[in-house]
Amino acid sequence: MDQPKESPIWMQEPSVQSIPREKLEFLQKLVFESASLTPRQLLPFLMALAQRSRTEQISFSQEEMTAVIEAIRKYSTPEEIGKMDQILKLLSSKKSRET
To answer: What are the residue ranges spanned by the domains of the chain?
Structure first.
């Protein structure tokens, strides 16, 4: 089954095909909306995003997150990868404080 043309190329990777489309679209919004944020703006954005994911009842297994991150990285510039690493680091430190 072909993906619609407006789908980003990373969503067409075989490794993410088993992940529900709604989840992939949610992540695409995250990538798009966070692209222009400064490091200072990133944490409030992620906090709001976490709330939105709870409201929309969207969660990801570790396997889904790994597949998505690998798919996105494959098509990212070094700058985008740096931004992704920054987001993942913030998420990781937030998660470790919650436990």
So the answer is: 19-24+57-94
Report the amino acid identity of residue 86.
Q
Tokens of 43: 């944490």
CA-CA distances (angstroms) from residue 14 to 17, 19, 59, 81, 96? 5, 10, 20, 20, 31
Q: Which two tokens stand for residue 2?
A: 């072909």
Q: Is 6 helix (H, G, I), strand (E, B) or coil?
A: coil
1 pLDDT band (50/70/90 cuts)?
very low
- How far apart CA 62 and CA 66 sit, in angstroms, is 6
pTM attached to this predicted model: 0.68
Q: Are 69 and 81 in contact (CB under 8 A)?
A: no
Place of tokens 């997150």: 65
Determine phi and psi for 63, rounding to 5 degrees. Answer: -65, -40
pLDDT-derived band at 3, boundaries 50, 70, 90: very low
Q: Say how far residue 95 (Cα) sits from the centre of its chain.
A: 16
